[in-house]
C-alpha cells in the first residue's frame, strides 16, 4: 500500500440516496414551426434577396437541437433564393485550427450533408476596426466577404462575469466570429472589462459587417428548447438583456446550497466553456461572477468523449483522477487559457489513482469535525441535474424540499476492483 492509500485508508464514505430535483420543464413543443414562422416574417425575409451569399455563424457548445436549428435556417435561406454556407464561430475552440473547428461542428451533428450547406472553416481574419481603447476588432474573412451574416447561439449566463449582456449573440459576434485572434484580443484586458468589450466590439461589427439577424435560443433546465427568437441585427443589443433574464430563470441548479463535497463524474467543452458550469458548481474562474452553492471541496472524475481531451475547467476542482489526466490533451487545454488569459482552470489538481481515493481525499480535507456527517452530492455533469445522488446526511433536507423527490434507500458507494464507480447514470 502506498503512502497516499495509507493516508486515506480509514476515511469513511457516506451511504448515498438517489433523488430527483424538479424544475420548470415547459418547452417549445413545435420549435421548428415557430422558427420558420419568424424567419418568414416580412421584416426578416425582406433582408434577403436571390443569389446573395449568406454566412451562417454557428458555435461550439452542446446546444439543444443545434444541428436541426441550423438546418432549418439554411433551408429557409435557400427558399428565399440565398446561397448559405456555414462558418464556425467559436473563437479559439477546436484547438484554434480550421480542422479542429470543423471537427467540433461535426461532433454537434453539423456537417455539410446534414444541414445542407458547405462549411468554410478557416482561422483567417480581417481587421475591421480599432476600439478607442486600442483593441483591434477582427472578423472571420469568409463571413466578412459574404453578402449577409446570420448568427445562431444560445443565450445564457456567462461563467466569468456579470452584466446585462453575457453569453449569447453579442458574444458570438465579437468573440466567436473573431476566431482565435478576436477571442484573444477581447480577453486581453481581462474579465473585468469583458462585459464592456463584448458590447463595444459587437456594436462595431454589427455596424461594419452585413449582419442581418440572429437566432437566439433559450433552454429550460432539462436542456430542451423553451424559446426561439429571430432578432434583427439592430435590436440585438437591446433585446438580449431580456432574453438573458429569461435564461437565468430557467437554469437548473443544485437545490442543496451548502456542501462539504461535490463530486462531478465528467466535464467537457460540450457541457460548458469551463468544462463544468460555474453557475452550477459555485466555483468561478474569476472574481467577477458569483452565485451557486457553497462547496468546500470539489472532485472531477473524467472527461466527456466529445471534449476531445480538452480539460479546461479541471483546475477549479480540488481533486481529480489519473484517468482524467491520462485523457487530457494539454495543447487543446492550454490553448484555452492562453487565449482567455485565465489559466487557473487549466491547471491539474491533486491527482489520485481512482475514484474512491479522490472522493476520500475530498472528505478528508473538507474541514468538518465528523466525517461521518459529510454533506456530499454527486452529479453526472452540470447539464444533467434532474437525478442526482446525495449523502444520507442530506436526506432530511431533501424530504423537506418541495422540489426534491427521494427515489431510493441509502446504499453504500459501489466501486470496482480498480476503485472506480460501478453505478452509472
Structure keywords:
425 residues, five-stranded mixed beta sheet, 32% helix
What can you see in these coordinates?
With 425 residues, this protein is an alpha/beta fold. The chain is 32% helix and 21% strand. It is built from 16 helices and 15 strands. It has helices spanning 3-8, 31-39, 42-45, 66-79, 98-107, 112-115, 141-144, 169-176, 179-187, 194-208, 236-250, 278-281, 322-327, 330-340, 355-364, 395-400; strands at residues 16-21, 53-58, 83-88, 125-130, 136-140, 148-154, 211-219, 225-232, 258-267, 294-303, 319-321, 350-352, 376-379, 387-391, 404-406. An 8-stranded mixed β-sheet has the order 12-11-10-9-13-14-1-15. Helix 4 (66-79) links the parallel strand 2 and strand 3. Helix 2 (31-39) runs parallel beside helix 4 and helix 8 (169-176) packs across helix 10 (194-208). The radius of gyration is 22 Å and the shape is globular. The two termini are 31 Å apart. Residues 54-189 form the LarA-like N-terminal domain. It holds the Pfam family Lar_N.
Tally of DSSP helical segments: 16
Tell me roughly what share of residues is in helical segments. Answer: 25-40%
Instruction: Specify Rg, calculated over alpha carbons.
Output: 22 Å
Distance between the termini: 31 Å
SS content category = alpha/beta
Task: Count every beta strand, where a strand is a DSSP E run of 2 or more residues.
Answer: 15
The whole-number mean of residue pLDDT values reads: 93
Low-confidence regions: none
Give the biggest beta sheet. 8 strands, mixed
Can you list the strand order of the major beta sheet?
12-11-10-9-13-14-1-15
Determine the strand fraction and express it as a percent band: 15-25%
The rough form would be described as globular
InterPro entries: LarA-like_N
Domain LarA-like N-terminal: 54-189
Pfam family, one: Lar_N
Protein name: Lactate racemase domain-containing protein
Amino acid at each position: 500500500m502506498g503512502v497516499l492509500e495509507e493516508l486515506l485508508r480509514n476515511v469513511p464514505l457516506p451511504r448515498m440516496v438517489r433523488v430527483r430535483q424538479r424544475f420548470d420543464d415547459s418547452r417549445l413543443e413545435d420549435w421548428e414551426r415557430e422558427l420558420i414562422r419568424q424567419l418568414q416574417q416580412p421584416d426578416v425575409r425582406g433582408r434577403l434577396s436571390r443569389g446573395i451569399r449568406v454566412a451562417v455563424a454557428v458555435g461550439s457548445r452542446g446546444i439543444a437541437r443545434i444541428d436541426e436549428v441550423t438546418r432549418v435556417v439554411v433551408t429557409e435561406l435557400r427558399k428565399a433564393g440565398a446561397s448559405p454556407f456555414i462558418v464556425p464561430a467559436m473563437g479559439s475552440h477546436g484547438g484554434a485550427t480550421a480542422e479542429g473547428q470543423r471537427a467540433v461542428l461535426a461532433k454537434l451533428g453539423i456537417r455539410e450533408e446534414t444541414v445542407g450547406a458547405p462549411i468554410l472553416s478557416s482561422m483567417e481574419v480581417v481587421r475591421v476596426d480599432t476600439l478607442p481603447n486600442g483593441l483591434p476588432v477582427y472578423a472571420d474573412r469568409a463571413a466578412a466577404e459574404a453578402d449577409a451574416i446570420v448568427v445562431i447561439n444560445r443565450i445564457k449566463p456567462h461563467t466569468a462575469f456579470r452584466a446585462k449582456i453575457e453569453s449569447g449573440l453579442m458574444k458570438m459576434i465579437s468573440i466567436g466570429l473573431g476566431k482565435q485572434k478576436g477571442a484573444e484580443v477581447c480577453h486581453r484586458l481581462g474579465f473585468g472589462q469583458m462585459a464592456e468589450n463584448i458590447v463595444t466590439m459587437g456594436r462595431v461589427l454589427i455596424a461594419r459587417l452585413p449582419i442581418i439577424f440572429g437566432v437566439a435560443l433559450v433552454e429550460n433546465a432539462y436542456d430542451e428548447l423553451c424559446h426561439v427568437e429571430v432578432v434583427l441585427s439592430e435590436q440585438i443589443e437591446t433585446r438580449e438583456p431580456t432574453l438573458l433574464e429569461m435564461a437565468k430563470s430557467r437554469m437548473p441548479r443544485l437545490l442543496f446550497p451548502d456542501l462539504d463535497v461535490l463530486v462531478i463524474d465528467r466535464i467537457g467543452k460540450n457541457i460548458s466553456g469551463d468544462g463544468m458550469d460555474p453557475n452550477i458548481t459555485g466555483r468561478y474562474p474569476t472574481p467577477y461572477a458569483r452565485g451557486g452553492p457553497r462547496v468546500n471541496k470539489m472532485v472531477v472524475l473524467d472527461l466527456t468523449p466529445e471534449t476531445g481531451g480538452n480539460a479546461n475547467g479541471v483546475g477549479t476542482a480540488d481533486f481529480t483522477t489519473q484517468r482524467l489526466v491520462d485523457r487530457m490533451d494539454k495543447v487543446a487545454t492550454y490553448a484555452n487559457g492562453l487565449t482567455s488569459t485565465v489559466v487557473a482552470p487549466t491547471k491539474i489538481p491533486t491527482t489520485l489513482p481512482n475514484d474512491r481515493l479522490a472522493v476520500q481525499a475530498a472528505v478528508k480535507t473538507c474541514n468538518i469535525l465528523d466525517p461521518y456527517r459529510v454533506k456530499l452530492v454527486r452529479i453526472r455533469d452540470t447539464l444533467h441535474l434532474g437525478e442526482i445522488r446525495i449523502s444520507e446526511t442530506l436526506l432530511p433536507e431533501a424530504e423537506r424540499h418541495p422540489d426534491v423527490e427521494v427515489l431510493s434507500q441509502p446504499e453504500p458507494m459501489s466501486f470496482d476492483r480498480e476503485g472506480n464507480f460501478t453505478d452509472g447514470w
